[in-house]
Amino acid sequence: MTAPGAPVLANSVPGEHAVAAATLAVPLTGADRASVLAAPLVAAAWACAVAAEARRGGTPVRTEPVVTADYAGITAEAAPGDHDALRRLADWFAAVAEHPLEEWEFGTVRRSFLSRTPSSARWSDAVRRALFGDRHRYGVGHDERVAHVTGCGPADVTAAARELLAARPAGPAPLVPRTVRVRLPAEGGAACHLLGTPGVSLGSDDKYALHVAWALLGGRDGMLDRRLRGEHALTYSLAAFSREFADGGYGACFAACAPGARDEVAERTGEVLRALERGAFPRSLVDSAKERLIIANHRSLRDGRSVTERLCGYEIAGTDPGGITQYARHVGGVTPEQVADVARRHIGGDQPGGDL
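and the corresponding structure tokens:
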């Protein structure tokens, strides 16, 4: 795993993408909470400063901030003929990374962040906070981050940038996740049933079977959609997915329904999860889920930016970056028995948990 504070650089392969891309990422591992909360502003400030530094050197590039649960950084894009120029990204970054942020620059990056962060992004906050705890960065939520960013000043962003770039201990490990059920207050005549389950880290061998399991559950005509909407007309919005990070991961199911239907939605969801762990699903549904995953991954590999940002995540996690090109082979080899096995160990409808 990459040492905290040590930047990671990934470049797209010349000739493979319509736009050349390079991503420079700084790990968030071990950073204090204020710096993690300010990471989007730090990344936005870096993106502006690097673009200006590149222009001064005669290389026009497009820069965008990128922030994940594991790192903050920038992605630079250029015409394919300027691919070699992107190899200077680390030099541009080193020249500006710790420069103090001017007041006008700060106002620009803060307004940009707030305008691009919809409140709808907060629905999974309670699940992640319950699964990973308040001390770990994976528990950071939308409302906490927006409140912190709103109260920040230029000096706070400069201090956060220096903290992220400094050498430091790895910090606390996330809590060992347990299954949690979250009851959100009804708003506008709608209620939400949220289920959070333990997941796996980016380097886990279980990742591929879990992807297939969650693809079986989610999506149009998935197991949850068939039961909750098709058979019982209980929900009008549904999502199910898993996420993997360097230190751990989680799965989540979101179902929007009428307030009076929430208990039945929870009961029917549990029935579906128990069916998944018993292997009570047709093989054709497994084949369809795998096909969707493979197609989505193939599309992402055609985007240079998507590739370089994923490569940085793998490098920071200490996982073989070559794994992204082998995704189709791994997913294609998943069997129905493996799906049922990971469902029992990571998703199971009868796992001990708690209501929040």
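(Above: one complete record from the training split.) The first helix runs from residue 33 to 37.
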